[in-house]
Amino acid sequence: MNPVRRFFRRYVLSTVGLLALLLAANVLLIVGLLVLWEATPPRESFSITAFCGQLSQGPDGWQASAEAAAMLDPGAWAMVLDPDGNVVWEYQMPDALARHYSAGAVAMLSRWYLEDWPMTVWAQDDGSLVAVAQPKGSMVKYYLAMDKGYFGFLSMLFSVVVYANLLLIVALFLHSARRVEKAMGPILNGINSVAGGKPVHLREDGELAEISAGLNRAAAYIARKDNTRADWIRGVSHDIRTPLSVILGYASQLEEDPALPEAARAQAAVIRRQSEKLTGLVADLNLSTKLEYALRPLELRPLDAVELARQAVTEVLNGGLPEGYTLTFAEAEPGARLTLAGDPALLGRMLANLVHNCVDHNPGGCAIEVGVGPAAGGVLFTVTDDGVGLPPEKLQSLNRGAPLPSTQPDAPHAAEHGLGLRIVRQVAAAHHGRLSFAAAAPHGLAVRVWLPKR
Amino acid sequence: MRDTMDGLDRSILIVDDEAELLEMVRGVFLRAGYRQVLTAADGPQALALCAASRPDIVILDVMMPGMDGFEVLRQLRRHSSVPVLMLTARGEAEDKFTGFACGADDYLAKPFLPRELLFRVQAILRRSAPSGRRVRLAAAEVDLENAEAHRGGEVTPLTAKELLLFRKLYENAGRIVTTGALCAAVCGPVWQGYESTLATHIRHLREKLEANPSKPVSIVTVKGLGYRLELPGAKGAAR
After folding, report:
1. CATH code, domain carrying B142
2. How far is Cα B183 from Cα B191, in angstroms, rounded to an integer?
3. Which residues of B touch A (CB under 8 A)?
4. Confidence of residue A174 (pLDDT cuts 50, 70, 90)
5. Which residues of A touch B29 (CB under 8 A)?
6. B55 and B110 both lie in a single domain
7. Contact criterion met (CB < 8 Å) for A249 and B24
8. Model pLDDT for residues B44-80, shown as the tens digit of each residue
9. How many domains does chain B have?
10. Which of A225, A251, A331, B22 has a 20 to 30 Å separation from B200 between CA atoms?
11. What span, in angstroms and rounded, lies between the C-alpha atoms of A349 and A340?
């Protein structure tokens, strides 16, 4: 999945998670506080039925037990009304209050207050009414009554508002996340492209215009630097070509001039050989730079691997091998048709470079064999020589990707001159191939390049 | 007309703004035995020389001040089909395509080896051989126009495929031509599976051209790679 999409998917999921957490926290808080309230030691709350239990009607009228008085809060008072509304028993009842209450007054006080005393009433079996007044201001009394249809509507309204709000929160959040994604997406993709060395140009508008502009500048800077370097190499290699042609041309002519002494012709041959090396180097440098900065696109096409190797070997042979070297070609399975998708020019160059490496690293001459054959899921090219080879530790470091070290003993710092090999690596990598180095028997170097069929 | 040492009697025009390179290339052809080697330092001079001397081949530098090589080639192509080999200091693929699109016959990137230049010029000259030319081999002569092999007093016709094959080898005389390239010359880009038929054609050619077909000296097998046509006295001439 695209990392940007992955990031926003995680962002949305984490926010939904946070919302769920918030909801859960609220529920937990409410439940927790309620539990805590219930768990606190029960406050002595007045119970009218318990109070009634402490009252009794004897022959001398109503009697209260000693506990009954204790049950009342300080400042509270109590009375008992008979069915006619007369006070037949009282306890600490203020004198200013009436001792007879009409049915209407009883209805009022049982529901609300009596002269601001909040009242609690309980009807007895005999029709009398026990009324207890709590201290003024100690109690809140509300009376709720409404039409059933209206109550249904109100509860529906409440649920609708709650759910609509929840939906709206989710929708607004998703919308906002989408906006952020739209603004951030190109920038994150741009960063990815810059990291991958691809060109980037973002639109410089909206709230994040400055960030886009900064990224554009960074990408342009990197591209300019790459181009400058590639241009520089191209320029140098271009300017070097004409003088090199003249040197090569005259050196060749001097080398073949029968009128010159043998020693002079030998010197001309050295100039010609070194100029040829320089020619190869210029071409390698140019190609390596192009591959490095992806300035040369791969031209993949179906190839006959055997013919490709034949062409590469033939070109080296037609170009002329120095004395002391032989180059042969071998098919692991003669007649087998080996096809692969590749860039013929690059693959040919890769094989030629490997052959030239054998020549460069064996100044005393050697026999080189280029082989081609089928291998698991692809084609295996081998370039083997019977030269000096390399010590095991060098082979190991080569297989880890190190440049090819010089084998020439007079190189003071054992300078690495692996440009030709660098191209081999680049070409193999561009074709998703593998490169390995091994010792050849009884001596020499064997380079294997495996390329997938694709 | 007989092929005398790869058409050394034919005229060559070399165009380059670099005087020293021009002189060097002229020297390469003179030493190789060519007798008519003309030079021009810029586009207009080259066009004038082409019109006046009608060279058999033009070697044209791409990067020249004023009129570049592509422009010279475009103007040249309006009234001439002379073979043109482009020389460039760039060697980039786009240059190659532009060159071929303008009507170039071949393309060589600087720096080049004199023998490579000589070989390319010889190959082009062989392709554009005037009619009636004969190719002299060690034991026979091949009449390219009439598709005939002359050995001793005996004249044998060459089949169309044998002629195609021989032309390909002749254009690249002295060099190895791979089996694939030869098959492609005979039956086009999809040649896989044709290798054994190619071997039969080669055997027939040898029977017509070699003194001893079992020990060929003109059409030589290069093991695993292909074949090479050897011209008498031409060994090392490309160097």
Report:
1. 1.10.10.10
2. 6
3. 18, 20-21, 24-25, 27-28, 31, 89-91, 93, 109-116, 175-181, 192-193, 222-226, 239
4. confident
5. none
6. yes
7. yes
8. 999 999 999 999 999 999 888 889 899 999 999 998 8
9. 2
10. A331
11. 16
CA distance A125 to A114: 23
Per-residue tokens: A58: 């004897």
Give 3-state DSSP helix, strand, coil % of chain B, rounded to 5.
Answer: 40, 20, 40
Alpha carbon A181 to its chain centroid, in Å, reads 14
Domain shared by B21 and B116, yes or no:
yes
What residues of chain B score a pLDDT lower than 50?
1-5, 235-239
Q: Kindly list the distances between the CA atom of residue B219 and the CA atoms of A231, A243, B123, B186, in Å, as whole numbers in the listed order.
A: 47, 38, 17, 16
Q: What is the pLDDT of residue A108?
A: 87
User: What is the per-residue pLDDT across A361-373, written as a single tens digit (0 to 9) for each?
Assistant: 898 899 999 999 9
Question: Are A316 and A352 within 8 A, CB to CB?
Answer: yes
Q: Which of B110, B112, B225 sits opposite A329 (nearest CB)?
A: B225
A248/B90 touch (CB, cutoff 8 Å), yes or no: no
Residue B2 pairs in a beta bridge with B134
Name chain A contacts of B178, Cβ cutoff 8 Å. 307, 310-311, 314
Query: How far is A433 from A430, CA to CA, in rounded Å?
Result: 7
Contact B217, B138 (CB under 8 A): yes
- Cβ contact A248–B113 (<8 Å): yes
| Inside any domain, residue B4 | no
